[in-house]
């Protein structure tokens, strides 16, 4: 008898976009969909929010076809929060529907636009279970947690954001990237007490506590705030990537962090060169500093039918100056001899 071999499904990469209401999740999905499409990735956006109406992006899978918040609120006499919790429990109970929808798309990059209720990611288990099932279906996902940058202007709110972000990271149990969204609007909320790096890298929070102590209302809560800050610093997990969806360089920084977190950047090398080619089209030098390969684009100042030379160097502790790959004509990459040696 011949043994029937079972073909293991290929890996599918993507992002689950989470965060509080108004943090810009849908806008992020729209912008990231357009950005990735320009880079050559086949993008599938999945709307996981049963209350999301007037979706601005091209949606391949919409959970509203399965359940809507309005129907649940009307039928079960629930409020918005209780209704949304029920909706996500209903989705969890009908994951076979979601699986059939996702099976239609292979070799694609997925963006999951998730609901904005904070309890779903800090306490309730339905969304966590859905993410776990996606992992069993061979999805390699990064949780992109969006936080409105205006919280940086208020020390008390920023400490609250840090606690929420940490709780979400520990509960969701996915590779995690925290993002400060709407950076183009941050100046409208007032001058920051510290440089932006203080907030993105979550540096010594005692300085932030000193600002809180200056407020008579928060002065009596100093001990509580100190303990909350200690929890955040003891775990040392929370940091942020600033994002302006309208800025290409800002989108690249977020995409680098996401691709590194879910392992997409360590996949097919030729596919990873798309970003370099896009930069070359406008005569720019582009480098992936956080990738295992350094991509250097050498342009020639014209836009003829030939693509610019692309040289790729491996990042490691070896002494080398020779490219791993080089190419000159469109769509062609030729291997060259590896000449580096250890010291």
Automatic annotation (TrEMBL):
Keyword Lipoprotein: no
A GO CC term attached to the entry: cytoplasm
InterPro entries hit by this protein: Gpn (IPR004130), Gpn2 (IPR030231), P-loop_NTPase (IPR027417)
Keywords tagged on the record: GTP-binding, Hydrolase, Nucleotide-binding
Pfam family, one: ATP_bind_1
Listed Gene3D superfamilies: P-loop containing nucleotide triphosphate hydrolases
GO MF, any single term: GTPase activity
Self-association state and partner proteins as the record states: Heterodimers with GPN1 or GPN3. Binds to RNA polymerase II (RNAPII).
Protein family (similarity comment): Belongs to the GPN-loop GTPase family.
Function: Small GTPase required for proper localization of RNA polymerase II and III (RNAPII and RNAPIII). May act at an RNAP assembly step prior to nuclear import.
Protein name according to UniProt: GPN-loop GTPase 2
Species whose genome carries this gene: Oreochromis aureus (Israeli tilapia)
